[in-house]
Structures are given as C-alpha cells and as structure tokens.
Design brief:
Layout lengths: L16 H16 L8 H5 L14 E2 L11 H6 L12 H5 L9 E6 L5 E4 H7 L3 E8 L4 E11 H7 L8 E6 L19 E5 H5 L4 E6 L2 E2 L9 E3 L12 E7 L6 H5 L23 E4 L9 E2 L7 H4 L13
Parallel strand pairs: 1-4, 2-11, 5-12
Antiparallel strand pairs: 2-3, 4-5, 5-8, 6-7, 6-11, 8-9, 8-10, 12-13
The structure holds the ligand Nc1nc2c(c(=O)[nH]1)N[C@H]1C(S)=C(S)[C@@H](COP(=O)(O)O)O[C@H]1N2 and molybdenum atom (MO).
Catalytic activity: L-methionyl-[protein] + a quinone + H2O = L-methionyl-(R)-S-oxide-[protein] + a quinol; L-methionyl-[protein] + a quinone + H2O = L-methionyl-(S)-S-oxide-[protein] + a quinol
Family: Belongs to the MsrP family.
Pfam families: Oxidored_molyb
Length: 320
C-alpha cells in the first residue's frame, strides 16, 4: 500500500482545523434544521477551491448602476475596514490569506417556513449575478465607487419562505479566531452583527456581493458573501456572512451596540444629521488624492428617489 508522505498530499486534501470544525457545525445545524441531503449537503462539503481574482461567468450589467468614475481596483482592495483582519486600513489586505472561504455554508433560520443551509457555490450557481456599480459611503466621511458583482438579497430570502412574523433580518460574520486574527482581541463583541428591517432587506437596491471588477471577491472586501446597502453608511454592509436570521424584533448591530449615540440602527446616509464628532455634509473620494475637492454628501447617498418612501413619517434625526 502506498503511504502518502506529507509532501505528496495536495493542499486541497489538507483540511485546516477551523474548516473542519465549521463543517461539523454545519452538519449539526443542518441536522437540527432537518435539511441535510435535501439541500445538496455533499456539494456543500466538497466545493472546489475558488480564489479571489477568478472571473465570475455570465455577469449581467444592471440598470441600477451609477455612471460615476470607478475607484481603482487597487484602492478598493487595499484601503479597507474589516476589523476581523486588523484595525489599520492596510491590515485586511495584509492578513487576507488567513481567511479560508471554501467550503462556506450559510445558515438561514428564524421566522421562516423553510430554514436551511446554502453553500457559496450553490449561491453563485442559483442566483444570476449582476454588476452593480454603487457608491460606498463610509461613516468616516470617505467614499468609493465600486463595481460589485452580486444579486438582490430578496432572491435568496424568499427561497427560505419568511413568515408574517419576520419583521427584520439579522446577519452575522464568521467567528473563527484562527482565521480572523482580529478576533483574538476583545476589541468588539464578536461576531460582527448587522440587521435590516424587512422592507429594507427586500428592496431591489439591496444586494449580496460575491465579487468586484467581474471577479471573485478578495477576502479583504468580505469574501465570499457580503451585504451591500448603498443608501446606508458602510458599516451596515457586513462582510463574510455565515448566518442570516429572520426576527420579530430589531436585531442587535455591532457599531450601534458599541456606541449608540454615534451609530444608529438605520444608518441612512444623511448630510443633515452629523456624527457627534464630525460633519457628514461632505466626503472625500478614495483615490482622488489628498488635495482633491471634497464632494457634497447626498441624502440616502443619492438613492432618495428609490428609498425615501421607506421612511415616510419617521424623524430621521431620531432614527439615525
Ligand atoms: N464583518 C465586518 N464587516 C464590515 C466591517 C468590519 O469591520 N467587519 N466594516 C464595515 C465598514 S465600517 C465599512 S466602511 C465597509 C468597508 O467595506 P470595504 O472594505 O469593502 O470598502 O465594510 C463594513 N463591513
Ligand atoms: Mo465604515
């Protein structure tokens, strides 16, 4: 019999401990939810390695894209907020390789008739991928224009049949200190969490992104699956999602929990409501140079025509 020496074992056969543990958790969750084979458990567990930078096939352009000048790929992928990979803007790219994104089961649970688990490969296959060029406006008063690849969140949510009790959707990032070095420090109450009201989640502008510039998402940008809500500050756009839960009550959200006076649950981009420590009236474009003129920030990040009616009758200074 042939005994494989360690050097003969292809990298694809070696399972990092954290991935192994995640598989086990996935199998337990799947069993508890009574899904398992029905949702193609086998393909979930033996997904081929797809890497950042590989092209995503059949990406269709979207009419919901802006026509502004794109921020360069280098800037989008090297100036990041992703505290799980470090708090400096350059840390996420530096630490990106530590995160293993295959296999990547996503649990969908809570107030729905068909809870279950879906793998990233099935997500890429089942939901037609579009290019959506959106402004991303960080609460720190800078912005980018990003050619995301992704699909409307509503397409995924409806598959799991939310009940009439589902008033909100909660999201969670992977918790795995072995692969996410930032989680070895108690700087936040991990995992990173975010949430949307059901109508915000179902809105056609709200997408789950799987790529950018036509290619699989780099880890520092939230691979393999991150939320993008273009009319809200960037911190709502939670990265590396592993859990989606329909809830009756407003879910907890990381920055809102940490500093509620500075970061609201809604976090709609609003030049009329300043952050307590700085103005939100204007922002600088990443990549435009330090001396470039600041741009005026638009209410709802310029998407007011599409989304303002979601907040009819709400005082946006109170519900910031
Ligand atoms: N899990 C997680 N998601 C996150 C963050 C984070 O630290 N962890 N940072 C948020 C913030 S503040 C912003 S501005 C955007 C940045 O996205 P980008 O790095 O792709 O530009 O991601 C958001 N999503
Ligand atoms: Mo941000």
């Amino acid at each position: 019999m042939l005994i494989k020496r360690p050097s003969d074992i292809p990298a694809s056969e070696i399972t990092p401990r954290s991935v192994y543990l995640r598989r086990r958790e996935f199998l337990q969750t799947a069993a508890a939810a009574g899904v398992g084979a029905a949702l193609g458990g086998a393909s979930l567990l033996s997904a081929p390695a797809v890497r950042a930078g590989e092209p995503i096939p059949d990406v269709r352009p979207s009419r919901l894209s802006t026509d502004e000048t794109l921020t360069g790929r280098e800037d989008i992928t090297s100036y990041n907020n992703f505290y799980e990979l470090g708090t400096d803007k350059r840390d996420p790219k530096r630490n990106a390789d530590q995160l293993e994104t295959r296999p990547w089961p996503v649990v969908v649970e809570g107030e729905c008739e068909a809870p279950g688990v879906i793998g990233i490969e099935d997500i890429l296959r089942d939901f037609p991928q579009e290019e959506r060029i959106y402004r991303l406006r960080c609460v720190e008063a800078w912005a980018m224009v990003v050619p995301w690849v992704g699909f409307p969140l509503v397409n995924l949510l409806t598959r799991f049949k939310p009940t009439s009790k589902a008033k909100y959707v909660a999201f969670e990032t992977l918790y795995d200190p072995e692969m996410l070095p930032g989680q070895r420090r108690g700087i936040m109450d991990w995992p990173y969490r975010e949430g949307l009201r059901m109508d915000e989640a179902m809105h056609p502008l709200t997408i789950l992104a799987t790529g950018l510039y036509g290619e699989i998402l780099p880890n520092q940008n939230g691979a393999p699956l991150r939320l993008v809500v273009p009319w809200k500050y960037g911190f709502k756009s939670i990265k590396s999602i592993v859990r989606i839960r329909f809830t009756e009550d407003q879910p907890s959200a990381t920055w809102n929990m940490m500093q509620p006076s500075e970061y609201g649950f809604y976090a709609n981009v609003n030049p009329e409501v300043d952050h307590p420590r700085w103005s939100q009236k204007s922002h600088r474009m990443i990549g435009a140079g330090l001396f470039a003129r600041k741009r005026p920030t638009l209410k709802f990040n310029g998407y007011g025509e599409q989304v303002a009616s979601l907040y009819d009758g709400m005082d946006l200074a109170e519900f910031y």
